[in-house]
């Protein structure tokens, strides 16, 4: 999508949302109506306006009201677009929010059924010289104890120093 089309789509989304909240008073448009995205055709003559309606019982009636009032909404938006021809609006139902909610509910139910996740114990130290942690010890003592410090690194051996010969 070109930058111009993205700008027009973003402006349309904002203007349509504002018009639905403040200027449209169709009794068929009920519930919470959110404009989720706007997709423009390549010639910007047509705009698909995706809406989400909550609660679900108002979806059909609200979508019918939006489709019949598309011309009126386009006239409300037209002066703010600064285009020669404003796109024809086509309203569509967007169910991605509902699908996301279903996925989150399924995750939440799965977590509730399995219970809390087991505590993750820290890994063993990389050095074999350090004593291992007590796995079944007192948790309060284990959490307040400092982690073992690694043994000091030995200095690498230095090459022998050769005496310099006098070149005089």
* Count of individual helical segments: 5
The low-confidence runs, each spanning 5 or more residues with pLDDT under 50, are: none
- Please identify which CATH superfamily of the domain at 3-111 we are dealing with: K homology (KH) domain
Name the overall outline.
Answer: elongated
What's the CATH C level of the domain at 3-111? Alpha Beta
The CATH architecture designation of the domain at 3-111 is 2-Layer Sandwich
Mean pLDDT: 80
CATH topology of the domain at 3-111: GMP Synthetase, Chain A, domain 3
Helix content: 25-40%
- The H/E string reads HEEHHEHH
Strand content: 5-15%
Class from helix and strand fractions: alpha+beta
Q: Sheet with the most strands?
A: 3 strands, mixed
Radius of gyration, CA atoms, in whole angstroms? 33 Å
Q: How do the strands line up in the largest sheet?
A: 1-2-3
Number of strands: 3
Q: Ends: how far apart?
A: 81 Å
